[in-house]
Amino acid sequence: MKSRIRVIAGAFFALAYFERTATACDVCAVYTATEQRESRTGLFLGVAEQFTHFGTLQRDGDEVDNPLDEKIDSSITQAIFGYAPIPDLALQVNLPVIHRSFRRAEEGVARSDDETGIGDLSFLAQYALWTHVTEQSLVRFTILGGVKFPTGDSDRLAEELGEGHHEEEEAAEATEAEHHAELAVRALSVAQSIRFHGGVVHGDEIESGVHGHDLALGSGSYDGVFGARLFASHDRAFATASVQYALRTEGDFDYAYADDLTWSGGPGYFLWLEHDRSLGLQASLSGETKGKDEIDGARLDDTALTALYVGPGLLFTWGSSLGADLVGELPVIQNNTALQIVADYRIRGGLSWRF
Amino acid sequence: LALLKTILVFALLAATPAFAGSLGVGDRLDRIDLVDRKGAPVSFADFDGKIVILDFWASWCVPCRPTLGALEGIARRYGALDVVVLAVNVDERRNDAEEFLHERFADSAIRFAYDPGHRLLGEVGADGFPAIYILDRERTVRFAEAGFSVAEMAEVEREVAHLAGPGQPPRDDADLVSR
Q1: pLDDT at residue number A192
Q2: pLDDT of amino acid A205
Q3: In chain A, what residues touch B177 (CB-CB under 8 Å)?
Q4: Contact between B125 and A320 using a beta-carbon 8 Å cutoff
Q5: Please, are residues A329 and A312 in contact by the beta-carbon 8 Å criterion?
Q6: Is the bond leading into A331 cis (omega within 30 degrees of zero)?
Q7: Least CA distance to B63: which residue of chain A?
Q8: What is the C-alpha to C-alpha distance for residues A75 and A341, in angstroms, rounded to an integer?
Q9: pLDDT (tens digit, 9 = 90+) per residue, A21-31?
Q10: Which of A23, A30, A32, A51 should one mutate to test binding to chain B, selecting the residue with the greatest count of B CBs within 10 A?
Q11: Distance from the CA of A41 to the CA of which of A59, A116, A321, B38 falls in 20 to 30 A?
Q12: What confidence tens digit (pLDDT) does each residue in A124-158 have?
């Protein structure tokens, strides 16, 4: 109890300190932290991390038992190398380093393993399309576009060929006899799922929610990336919004990830603003929506997902050089198709330096 | 993998200089490509052999106003000693700046200029507003600070007096922070 009081008192005094030392020109500090920082020409480097713990099995949006404690701990660390030839334009290369440790059902038993390596490198261009500044507010709108290259190992996608869950293919090939056989297997599945304390079985094996497409480091495809970002502030209040659309093409093993739309943003408030540094607290909302992947044109039923995450975030800038952010998020909506493992929480952070 | 991540982070931090902003004391600023209020080019050739006080300002920046007032006084006092105040506006719309200048600096000793596309500001990497740099006659930065305070303006004047050398400027404090 005492420690909790100390934490609350500490937070109160920290806020009071930040307020007392605030600059008289909030928009000047916000301008330095956003427009001026992002308009700097020359080299910039960055590191971004996204850690996600997947530990819940869901079938068609509903949680099901996870008797073998299937999970994925996914860490994606992006090294960012950028150059801004002019203030409004920045070019950057993102090189992801991926580590995924996982446990899943294989041949009826739980098996742990991990997958590590570089992911798909992407080349992006960002352009500041519009900026507006007044004595109290600032708005900056940026667009981006680029290409993702097939540099990551896509071998895990080969597992999808053996899963035999192509819904259109199944529909096309199913004969009446096969249909009856499938009904029999389903009946067996139900019986076995009772035996496995509610665990999910498929045929005579436990069906895993951890799939090859969840583990693959790369797609083997050249994909397009398009997006936009908006920053708006008024006095010390601010809001951000960013959206990114990935236009996916067919890659290795005739596998094509579905196009996906990701977004993030939310309202925030600068707790600390000085002419050369800032600290903002943000209510972060982020999410993604993705359709069904395909193999050779046949859709895979365990690949679509729409998710919404919420959580607090901190944004820090020092001068027009250093920028850092940290966000912790919990999923509030996860609508998936078929059986998939879904996220329990995720942590995102980044650090960038403009020279 | 942990080692790789550690290397990435430390590579970033190792590349981090000890000061914020890319143009600091001791650096040289070799060129400027600005335009004056009539659109004519402004370069260092216009200030050959002179000490230049470079001030980045905007009409929306409230602390920039007393800074310009103080710099007006310095421009008047030290103009005869080869000191030029070059105030570079970074407003998105020039009309905002022109309106402000028409109201408050109709008759000024300051040289006002615009930075097309914020190229110079992007190169300099100012860490706040207003941002002031004092360049000696060789274009070496002798003073670099952001933000406004009376103490800082006094420091600017001390540095200018030091660089300008012997010679007493006429006193004219009326302009200091009066606009």
Answers
A1: 46
A2: 66
A3: none
A4: yes
A5: no
A6: no
A7: A25
A8: 16
A9: 334 689 999 99
A10: A32
A11: B38
A12: 999 999 999 999 999 999 999 999 999 999 999 99
Could you tell me how many helices (H) and strands (E) chain B has, helices first? Answer: 5, 7
Residue for token digits 């300002």? B57
Token pair listed for A21: 């030392």
Q: Does the beta carbon of B20 lie under 8 angstroms from any beta carbon of chain A? A: yes
Please name the helix (run of DSSP H) or strand (run of DSSP E) that holds residue A213, with its range, or none. helix A212-215
B95: pLDDT strictly greater than 50:
yes
Q: How far is CA A221 from the centre of its chain?
A: 19
Distances (CA, A) of A282 to A139, A239, A240, A323, B51: 17, 8, 9, 15, 45
* A138: nearest Cα among A37, A268, A27, A277: A27
Indicate which of A26, A32, A35, A36 best probes the interface with B, i.e. most B CBs within 10 Å of its own CB: A36
Among the residue ranges A152-161, A200-209, A250-259, the one predicted with the least confidence is: A200-209
C-alpha–C-alpha distance, residues B146 and A109, integer Å? 64
Question: First and final CA of chain A: distance in angstroms?
Answer: 46
Task: Please report residues of B whose CB lies closer than 8 A to that of A350.
Answer: none
> Is B147 at the interface with chain A, CB within 8 A?
yes
Nearest to A133 among B8, B60, B147 (CB): B60
A239 contacts A268 by C-beta, under 8 angstroms: yes
pLDDT (0 to 100) of residue A53: 98
Q: Is B145 part of the contact surface with chain A (CB cutoff 8 Å)?
A: no
Mean pLDDT of B118-140: 92
A8-22, A120-134, A286-300, B65-79: lowest mean pLDDT where? A8-22
Chain A residues in contact with B5 (beta carbon < 8 A): 47, 49, 77, 97
ipTM of the complex: 0.79
Rounded mean pLDDT of A236-251? 97
Say yes or no for a CB contact (<8 Å) between A99 and B16. Answer: no
A255: its two tokens: 């596998």
